[in-house]
TrEMBL record:
Organism (species): Peucedramus taeniatus
Entry protein name: PTPRO phosphatase
Transmembrane parts of this sequence: 706-730
Annotated Pfam families: fn3, Fn3_R-PTP-O
Entry GO CC: GABA-ergic synapse; glutamatergic synapse; plasma membrane
Domain Fibronectin type-III span(s) in chain numbering: 214-310, 320-417, 517-610, 611-703
Keywords: Membrane, Transmembrane, Transmembrane helix
GO MF terms held by the record: cadherin binding; protein tyrosine phosphatase activity; Wnt-protein binding
Length: 739
C-alpha cells in the first residue's frame, strides 16, 4: 500500500478558470512507489472518481470541469499496480489529507445591451402601479427593515440614503433580487408575467419633496430634469454553466455605485434615472449553490452612456480612431492626424501624450519633465517637445463627457540636436582629450565616442566605438582617448544616442580629424670616419611598418659653431654627415609629420681637430722664416714650433708661437741654418696631429754698396770686351770686302 497524500492545493487554471483547475499534491517521495492517482469528488450531487497518471512533480491540470459547479469532498489516493501470474494486483493508499472543495468560475452573461426611453411623469405614475408585491431584498435592506418600527402592507419608507427600487422579470414566474444602499438618482423595476404578485418599495412623495427642499439649491432653478427609463437586457451565459443569478453594477459620475442582485431567470432590468450624468453598467453571473464559496464571473462588457440635463441619451463610444500618425514639424512640435467614420466625424477628440523617455531616467537626471505624466489636450498640435525624447500618443474620440476607447498607441521620437564645439587637446603621441558642449534643451541616453583609423592588424579602415558616456545634466563633457598609434591619422566623432527603441543618434557631422605626433627616435650609434659622421637610430620598437604612417621624413641636425641639417626619407634610419672637424656637436634626430614632430634625446659628439694642410715657407731671410698653411675644420688657435735640424735635446729649444691666423713669421733665427718647424691646430683645448716642414735661413750677405760697384765694374769690363770683339769682326769683314 503506497504512503498517502499529505497535502492538497487547488488553484484556478488561469488560461481558463471556468473549466480548468490546477492540482498540486504533496506525498512522501522516498520509498513510495505508485503508478496512478485516484481522484474522487462530488460534482454537485453526483459522485465522480477517476484514475489519473499525468502528474509532473506533483502537479497536473484538469480542463474538463463544468463552469459554476461546486466540487466538494475532493480526495486523492495513490494507486500502486503490479501484474503477477497473469493477474493484476492493485493497492490504494489511505486518505489522510483534508478533503478540498472548489467552485469553478461561471461564464459571464451574453449580449448585454441598454436602451434609454424618455418618459413623462404622468405616464410613469400610471405605470408604476403595476409593481410586484414580493421580492428578495439584499442584506443591507433586510437589516434596515428590521430596525423599522413595524411592518406595514403598504409602501415602505426607508432612510434618505435609499431610494425606491422595484424590479420585474417578465421572462420568469419568480423574481429574486438583492439591493445595496441606493442613491437618490434612480429607481428601478422588474416586470413579471401577468397574474404574479407585486411588491412596491418606493419613497413617499412627501420624502421626495423634503429631500429636494433640503438639497441646498437656490430657489430659481432651471427646468426640472425629466426622468428617463433605462432598460438593461442580457442573455444567460453559454451552457453548460451552473449559476444562481446576476449581479448588476451601476456607477454614476464615478463616485456613486449601486450593486444589485437578481435571480437566474431575470434577463431584463428596468430602472428610472432621475438625475443626469455619466453612467457605467456591468452585469456578471454568480454561482452560490452548494457548500463552496460564492464566485462571480468576469465582466464580459461594461456599458457607458450619458444622460444630459435635457434628457438626451448619448450612447457609449465604441469606435476608436484609426490610422493615427504623428508628423514631426520641428524639434519641439509635432502634428497628430487620424481617420474616423462619418458618424463620428462631429465628435471632439482628446490627444494624450506621454514621454517614454522620462520613465527611463532617474528623477535627479531627468532633462525633460513636461510629459513625464500623461498630458491630455484637445488640440492635434503637440508642443513643448524636447529633442531626443520619445513620446507615445493615444487619441480618444469624445462626445460630451463620454470618452471612447483608445486608439492604438503611436510612438514617435524627436531626433537629438547633437553636440557642438568639439575640441581636441593632444597629450602626446598616444593620447588625446576630446571635449564638447551640448545644447541646453535636449534629452539623450548616452554619448558615443567613435574613431576612424586604419587598423594595421586587420588592414581595414572603419568606425569603431571607443567609449560610451552616460548622460548627465552637465552641459560639458570630455573623455581621454589613449593607446593611439603615433604618427597616425584619426577621425573622431561624438554622437548623442536617445532612449528610444530603436535608438536615434545625432550627428555624424560632429567630427574632428587629427594626426598624432610621432614618438621620439632613439640614436643607437655614431661613428666618425674619413671626415664623415655616420648616424643610426631606431623608431618605436624593432622594425616598425611605416607604410601607412603619416611620417614624412627624418631631420638629422648637428649643431655646433655651425648648424648642419639633413633630411632623410622615412624608410631609412641612417644618415651620413660631412661635419667640419674640431668642433663639439649637439646631435639629434627629429621625426616629422604634417602637424607635429618629436626629437630624440640629444647626443654630444666631439670631433678631433684636423692638422693644417698645404704648409709652405713663403719667405725667409738670414734670421726669419714666414710660414703659410691652409686651415681645415674648426680651430681656436695654432701653435708653431721650430727647432734646428740635427740639434740634440740638450740644445735650448725655441718657445712655440701661438697664432690665431693661418700665417706666421718666425724671427730670431740663425742665418744659414736649417730648421724643422711644426704647426699644430688646437680646438676646444684638444691638439691635432702636427704638420712638419724643414726650412733654412739665408747666408750672411756683403755691403750693398760694394756689391753694386762690383757689379758695375764687371758689367763695364764685359761691355768693353764686347766692343773690342765687335771691332775685330768688323775689321775682318772690311778687309775681305777690300780684297
Amino acid at each position: 500500500e503506497p504512503l498517502p497524500v499529505s497535502n492538497v492545493s487547488i488553484y484556478d487554471y488561469k488560461p481558463s478558470p471556468e473549466t480548468g483547475v490546477l492540482f498540486e499534491i504533496q506525498y512522501p517521495e522516498k520509498y513510495n512507489v505508485f503508478t496512478r492517482v485516484n481522484i474522487s469528488y462530488w460534482e454537485g450531487k453526483d459522485y465522480r472518481t477517476m484514475l489519473y497518471k499525468d502528474f509532473f512533480k506533483g502537479k497536473t491540470v484538469f480542463n474538463h470541469w463544468l463552469p459554476g459547479i461546486c466540487y466538494s469532498n475532493i480526495t486523492f489516493q495513490l494507486v500502486s499496480e503490479a501484474t503477477f501470474n497473469k493477474s493484476t494486483l492493485v493497492e490504494y493508499s489511505g486518505v489522510q489529507h483534508e478533503p478540498k472543495q472548489h467552485r469553478t468560475v461561471p461564464y459571464p452573461p451574453r449580449n448585454i445591451s441598454v436602451q434609454i426611453v424618455p418618459i413623462n411623469r404622468n405616464n410613469w405614475e400610471e405605470h408604476s402601479g403595476n409593481f410586484a408585491e414580493e421580492s428578495f431584498i439584499g442584506p443591507q435592506e433586510i437589516m434596515r427593515k428590521e430596525k423599522a418600527s413595524h411592518p406595514s402592507e403598504g409602501p415602505t419608507e426607508i432612510p434618505a440614503a435609499n431610494t425606491s427600487a422595484a424590479w420585474l422579470d417578465e421572462h420568469s414566474n419568480s423574481t429574486e433580487y438583492e439591493t445595496s444602499s441606493q442613491p437618490s438618482w434612480w429607481s428601478s423595476e422588474t416586470e413579471l408575467s401577468e397574474g404574479e404578485e407585486e411588491f412596491v418599495d418606493a419613497v413617499s412623495r412627501d420624502y421626495e419633496a423634503s429631500d429636494a427642499n433640503t438639497s441646498g439649491r437656490p430657489t430659481a432653478e432651471p427646468p426640472p430634469f425629466l426622468p428617463v427609463q433605462m432598460v438593461l437586457t442580457w442573455l444567460p451565459p453559454k451552457p453548460p454553466t451552473a449559476f444562481d443569478g446576476f449581479h448588476i453594477n451601476i456607477e454614476r459620475e464615478e463616485n456613486s455605485t449601486e450593486f444589485l442582485t437578481v435571480s437566474e431567470d431575470t434577463h431584463k432590468f428596468v430602472a428610472e434615472l432621475k438625475e443626469p450624468g455619466k453612467y457605467k453598467l456591468s452585469v456578471t453571473t454568480f454561482s452560490s449553490s452548494g457548500s463552496c464559496e460564492v464566485r462571480g464571473s468576469q465582466s464580459a462588457k461594461t456599458l457607458s452612456f450619458y444622460i444630459s440635463p435635457t434628457g438626451e441619451w448619448i450612447e457609449e463610444l465604441t469606435e476608436k480612431p484609426q490610422h493615427v500618425t504623428v508628423t514631426v514639424l520641428s524639434s519641439t512640435t509635432a502634428l497628430t492626424s487620424w481617420t474616423a467614420s462619418h458618424e463620428s466625424s462631429g465628435n471632439s477628440t482628446i490627444v494624450s501624450v506621454l514621454s517614454l523617455t522620462c520613465q527611463k531616467q532617474k528623477e535627479s537626471q531627468r532633462l525633460e519633465k513636461h510629459y513625464c505624466t500623461e498630458v491630455n489636450s484637445s488640440s492635434s498640435l503637440i508642443e513643448n517637445l524636447v529633442p531626443g525624447a520619445q513620446y507615445q500618443v493615444v487619441v480618444y474620440l469624445r462626445k460630451g463627457p463620454l470618452v471612447g476607447p483608445p486608439s492604438d498607441p503611436v510612438t514617435f521620437s524627436i531626433v537629438p540636436t547633437g553636440i557642438k564645439d568639439l575640441t581636441l587637446f593632444p597629450l602626446g603621441p598616444t593620447a588625446v582629450v576630446l571635449s564638447w558642449n551640448r545644447p541646453f534643451l535636449g534629452v539623450f541616453r548616452k554619448y558615443v565616442v567613435e574613431m576612424f583609423y586604419f587598423n594595421p592588424s586587420t588592414m581595414t579602415s572603419e568606425w569603431t566605438t571607443y567609449y560610451e558616456i552616460a548622460a548627465t545634466v552637465s552641459l560639458t563633457a570630455s573623455v581621454r582617448i589613449a593607446n593611439l598609434l603615433p604618427a597616425w591619422y584619426y577621425n573622431f566623432r561624438v554622437t548623442m544616442v536617445t532612449w528610444g527603441d530603436p535608438e536615434l543618434s545625432c550627428c555624424d557631422s560632429s567630427t574632428i580629424s587629427f594626426i598624432t605626433a610621432p614618438v621620439a627616435p632613439k640614436i643607437t650609434s655614431v661613428e666618425y670616419y674619413n671626415h664623415l659622421l655616420y648616424v643610426t637610430w631606431t623608431y618605436g620598437g624593432d622594425g616598425p611598418d611605416l607604410s601607412h604612417s603619416r611620417m614624412l621624413h627624418w631631420m638629422v641636425v648637428a649643431e655646433g659653431k655651425q648648424k648642419i641639417k639633413k633630411s632623410v626619407t622615412r624608410n631609412v634610419m641612417t644618415a651620413v654627415l660631412n661635419l667640419p672637424p674640431g668642433d663639439i656637436y649637439n646631435l639629434s634626430v627629429t621625426a616629422c609629420t604634417e602637424r607635429g614632430s618629436n626629437t630624440s634625446m640629444p647626443q654630444l659628439v666631439k670631433l678631433e681637430p684636423a692638422p693644417p694642410k698645404s704648409l709652405f715657407a713663403v719667405n725667409k731671410t738670414q734670421t726669419s722664416v714666414t710660414l703659410l698653411w691652409v686651415e681645415e675644420g674648426v680651430a681656436d688657435f695654432f701653435e708653431v714650433y721650430c727647432q734646428q735640424a740635427g740639434s740634440s735635446q740638450e740644445t735650448k729649444a725655441q718657445e712655440p708661437v701661438t697664432v690665431s691666423s693661418h700665417v706666421v713669421t718666425i724671427s730670431s733665427l740663425t742665418p744659414a741654418t736649417s730648421y724643422n718647424c711644426s704647426v699644430t691646430t688646437f680646438s676646444h683645448n684638444s691638439p691635432s696631429i702636427p704638420t712638419f716642414i724643414t726650412v733654412s735661413t739665408m747666408v750672411t750677405e756683403m755691403n750693398p754698396n760694394v756689391v753694386v760697384i762690383s757689379v758695375l765694374a764687371i758689367l763695364s769690363i764685359l761691355l768693353i770686351g764686347l766692343l773690342l770683339v765687335t771691332l775685330v769682326v768688323l775689321r775682318r769683314k772690311h778687309l775681305q770686302m777690300a780684297r
